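Page 47, continued from p. 46.
Same chain as before, 292 aa.
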Amino acid sequence: MTEKISIRFFDDREVRAVWNDADSRWWFSVLDIVGVLNNQDKYTKNRNYWKYLKAKLKKDGIQLGSGTNQLKLTARDGKKRLSDVVDSDGVIALAKNLPNTNANRFIEWFIYSEQTIDGKSKSKAYALFESSFINSIEVGTIKGLQQIHSYLFGGLYDFAGFIRSKNISKGGFKFANAEFLAQTLADIERMPEDSIDHIIDKYTEINIAHPFMEGNGRTARIWLDLMLKKNHARCVDWSKINKNDYLDAMRLSVADNTRLKSLIHNALTDKTTDRETFMKGIDYSYYYEETE
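Result:
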């Protein structure tokens, strides 16, 4: 089985998934789904509820999709353990058989989330790891940033890969003025990459510049990782950085990026060619952009 791992987020809770080459499909953690639908984070309570529900479904003659399977999933302690999983049909059947108010909303999220622009872009981001294109991206340059943006959003936005010509703002903060953006980006491109802190400074400045109309964060985080990989044989394990901590640090970084540097330093890993680290990084990167 090829190690393809994915993490989906529903109401800030993880739903882990693993790809099985033997049957060419994604399989999703039953306990994660039970926890999401019951608003429950405790493993033992989710396990006990699943044991009860599984027995009840069997007694009632209800089959979950093609049935449950067991595959290895990474637990919170980092170890891989055999876990009950269901396929896409099984996820929907399971949700329908859990009597709570979250079920319908969860089913709608599960069915339609991958058909959105973000969902389609995320699939492209996954594919980037397998593509030879990743080796042709100019590291640390504005052209390289545009290459990443074009890859992620090509066919989804008509401005994919193009530097914006309009002024934009978010939460009352105005990003770099479009009139002077070309010079701003040229200055950022010349920033040094000789230390990890200098690369984080460069990443901070590209965020303040926000060169694209949409998709800046997702593009810049890949850009950052490529710089870290090329210059220091490191990348960020984004799953180690809490969403709210990251967003707070990014807001503060406009004046002082000390907090951001601390978060990134604590999440650095030398697993620069590890598929699971990359896939989880994409999952978290897109999760950061989800609005409440």
